[in-house]
Every structure is written in structure tokens, then in C-alpha cells.
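User: Second chain of the day. Same drill as before.
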Amino acid sequence: MQKCAPSTSVARCAGPCALVGWAVLALVLPGGCASLPPGRQAVDRVDVVGASAVAESDVKEKISTASSPRFLGLWQGLVFDYELFDPYVLERDLQRVERLYRARGYYEAHARAGRVERRANDHVAVTIVVDEGIPVRVREVRLDGLTAVPIDDAAAALAAVRGRLRYGEPFDEDDFVAAEAGIRAALTDRGYAFAQVSGEATVDLPAHVADARFAIAAGQLARLGPITITGLGDLPEAPVRRALDLSEGELYSSSKLESARHAALALGVFGTVEIQPDLRNPASPVVPLTVSVVPTKLRAVKLGFGVELDSIRTDVHLDAGWEDRNFLGGMRRLSFDLKPGVVLWPTRLPKPEKPTRVLPENKARGELRQPGLIEPRTAGILRGEFNIYPVLFREQTNPDEIQGYREVKGGAGFDRTLGSLYASLFYNYQISFPFSYFGDLQTASKVVLSYVELTTTLDFRDDVIRPHKGLLLGNVFQLAGLGGNVRGSLFAKDFKVQPEARGYIPISRTVTFALRSTIGLLFPQNYTPASRPPGAGAEAETERLGDVQLVYFRGFFSGGPNSNRGYAYRGVGPRGPVDFFIPAYAAAQVAANCSANPTLPDCQFPLGGISLWEASAEVRFPILGGLGGVTFCDASDVSDRREVRLSHPHLSCGGGLHYGTPVGPLRFDFGYQIPGAQAPPGSEPAENGAPYAVSIGIGEAF
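Assistant: Same format as last time:
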């Protein structure tokens, strides 16, 4: 029996929303309709009533009876198979719910199927009713055997228990097991390599109390013995030992062994690293270590191509690279990346035209990484770049007014990982030479930037490429004024700061709710925001154009595949005239024309700003195999003043398809600007282009 039918929600959806909805249906309907086996019933929904001590989502995760998934949150039986109702499976699920409650301290909990509602077309709704009962609470926690260790070590073991088992709280079996492991970890971190911990819990059901006892045998303090490294093959041993930073004779520490394992993996030449302590002889005060490594390929070549199409540009490019992870020995990493391409102008969305001009562009980047510089876990890095690219904006109409930059960048610095914390400190130097693809260059001059950048990241995500839960906190701080066009006094340098937070919340085992927010502030000293009107007089106008260039490189922009996805790249923020990017006009004529009609194409160059805020929320869900989907909403604003204008949300919402690859998902996102949720009327120039954007990229948006 086939039950696949489009929702009336699509019929009510107008404009681009309807087009996207019907396009998705046209793609998936031919082979994506699920069927119900004869005599079987589909589960429409599952509700849990009476669950307060345990979250309803936790209960649903433990049972097999589940609601039938809805494609894009709208349609059952489309792409996904139905979840079938089975009364015997439901009976076992009730037992699973009771076991879950007992593990949380509710030993008298009972679960029953309160209602199985029969619906039309062989569908049912299931309601599970939970009677939680009186919880068993912690009455006493004893740690026997700590008198044999110093008071500081005993305090660490007590702290491992105190955070998990508390007097008067419900007795949780998972917390009991975690407390036992925590005591063991606290002792092995402090040199007690042979520590033994045995936990026992006694539950008094009539009194609804539980007593926990941990028998501890710390043993003697141990130190590291000989360290043997196996599996290196032709690789040198000295860089590995330096990265491990373990010395024979130092006090044993399980956490330091784990840190050493991560440091060896960070060298980038090993697929796996295992550190195995020899704990067979508890009477020995020495623990030998065996470090087993499995090398990966030391050299790699990549070659591919790509196409970019949005409302600003269309380009076709090659993507080539070469990497040596043991350059000249010592596990130095040398890499080169080259991305030559051409921009086909004026081909772009929403109405692609036949290209009339071809604009060459190129990105070239090299990096040398030296591990163990200064100290074992700090790497030294040299970087260099040479780029050629056009500066395009959506309203551009004259092919003789296309200019670009030839750019040379260099940088030197250090980076270090310490647990969940990553930090890098770099000095960067950049020279950008403006040029004209066609015609003569007007008043633009080269831009020289010199700045120090500190980047920090605290990463508590469960997975770097496909995060499902966790938190990431980051910050970028830049201090300019060390030469170049940007200058400041000794105590008033030009500086820029941008903190960011990302959160990932599991809705179910396969569905993730992701959040991102960031705010950026720029404090210029010898230049002003670029959105001020054209100057009166040649000297004032020359100064203004110099400021425009500085803000273009130092300021904030928003919009694009990793920002606000309803807008083109740099599509959110102040816009205005820049005569060196539109050389057909003289400064006075630009001022006159744009004052009379600020919506003219030549008055819509993205200028950037000195303050930024962005916020995004999206739901990620699987569809079929490696294909997944997202629904998202992005909001952002860029201002030429230091302010956070929440009244200018520039809200865009949409959806996309993601296909998993080893380096992250290949994604296709469509974002639409929500009417009435952009900016107060008259506060900024009206958008002349399409109110949507299409983004194609590799990796999640955040």
C-alpha cells in the first residue's frame, strides 16, 4: 500500500518557496515513495506522558518504537521508510523504559502503553505512560583505603566522587560507575600506576536509600621506565620522542600519556598511535612504555576542478596541491596549493548571460611547518601567498570598469595545542597592488598591511568534521599599526576582535540542532568608515578613497556560504560609490549622481564596516545513505558605526542538501531573504538583485 502524497503545505507556499518545494518533490517522488506491507500499521507519533525526572528525548532514544520520519519535516513515507507498529516490540520497549528508570535511581518505576490510537489509512499514535515512583537517594558514600596516600592525592580522589554522588540526590548507576573510574583516574594521574578501585552499592528499597562504598588499593608510586617506539620504518625517531615529551624516570601520569599520544598524532605522519604501559608487575616501581605507531603516506598530490556560480560571479578553476610530511627529514611538513581559474563575466544568477569577458585569477599558497620549535609541542610556521583576483559586485554593469588586485602575503608564527585549547600567534605582512583588467587605473594605490594575529579556540565537540554535540568557543584578535598604511600611537594601535561561539545539540541519534553566533569590532585610528559620502575637493576625496581601501581589507563583511546564506558574498553591509572601482565617473559626477539616486548600480559597491554580528541556527538530518539535509535561518548586520543593530537582522531562511565526503559534506544550500525582516525602511539602499542566494561548498557552514 503506497501512502506517498505531497503535503498541502506546499500548495500554500508561494513564490520561490513553492518552486523549491515542487522541485524537491519532482526529484524524490519517482523513486522515493515508501509502501506499507499488507496488514501492517505505520507509527505516526510516539508520546511519553509522566516523564519528568528523565527527559522525554532520553526515553525515546532507548526504545525501538519510533515516529515515522518526515522528509524535510513535512512528509511521511517520502524518501524515508515508515516505522512499523509491532505490539511485541512495544512490550519490550516498556521493559527498556523501566530499566532506564532503575538506572537513574527510580527502582519502582512502571511503564505501560497508555493508548494506541488507531488512525485512518493504517496509521497509529502510541502513548507511553510512566509512573516514576519514589526515587532511591544517596545516603552514604565511603572511600576505604585513602589513608595510605598523601592528603593532596586523597583530596583529588574525593573530588572525583563529590561531583557525581551527592547526599540526597537520586542514585544514578552511570554516576556510580563514573565515580569509580574517576577515582582510578585521579590516582593514576598522580603516579599510582597500579591503583585498583572496586565499587559496591547497597540499595535499601523500603527506605528508598542507597549506600556506595569504594575499596581503594593505591599501591606504590611508579615512574616511567624505558620508552620503546615501534612501527616507524624509515622515519626518524628523534622528532617523535620530542613530540611525546616523556622522560624515563618522571612520575607516571595517565593523563600525560594521553596528551603524548595526541601530540604524536598531531605530527600528521601517523594514522594511529598507541601508548601501552607494562603493568604486569605491581611490585615494580618502574613502568616501561611501548609506543606503537602506524605511518600514513608521507607525500600526496591532489588535482581537481570546481565551478562557482552565484549572484556576483561565475568561475571555473583547477585545484592542485602537493604535500611532503617529512620534508628534509625531521617530520617537517611542506605544502603547496594552487588554484588557477577564470571568471566568466557577466554570467551570474539569477539570469545567467553568455560570457563576454574572461578575467584570469589565481591563488597560490605555500606553508612550511617545523614541529618541536622552542619546546616539544610548539610548531613554527612560515606561510606565503600570491593572489590575483577581480573585485566584483552584484550591480556591476560595465565591463570596462573591472579592477582587481595582485597580492603578496607573508606570515610567520607559532601554534600550540593544549588539551581542548588551540592557540596560534602570527605576524602577517601584506601588499596589495590594484590594477585594471580593462582600461586605465584611476586613483587607487597599493595597500600595505602589517599586523599581529592571535587566534584561540576551545573545542569540546565530539567530531571536528561532523559534530553532533558539544561546544566550540573561539576568538580572533588582530593588532595593526606596526608599519604599513594602518598606523596608530603607542597605546592606540588599530585593533580588531571577533569572538565566536558554536553549539551542537543532539535532537536524536541522527538529527543535530546547530547554533552559531559571532560579533566583531574594529577600532581604526588613522582612517574612518568607508561609507562616508564623496569628499569635497581633490585632497578630501583622495583621503576618502584611501580609507575605502583600508576598510575593504580591514573591515567586516557578511553574506555568503559560510555566513548569511540568503545573500551573495559580501552582500550584507554598507554600500556606496567608489570611483576607483568605477573609473568611467569623475568624483564630482559620482557624488552628484549618487546623491540624486543612491540605488544606481555604480553606487552599490560593498564598503564594509567596523562592527558585525551574525547568528545562525540549523537542523541537520539524514535522508538516504550519505545524503543529508538541512533547514536553516541566518541573520546578520554590518554597520559603519560601533554598534550592534539588532533592528537590522537581514534574516534569510532556507534548506539544502549535503553529501558526505572524507573531508566534509559537499553542500548545496538555498537561502531566501524573509520579507519584512531585513532592515527598517529607508535605513539603507534597497536591494536591486534577486532576494535569494545559492551556495555550493565543501564542509558544514559552521
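The first strand starts at residue 42 and ends at 49.

User: Great, on to the next one.
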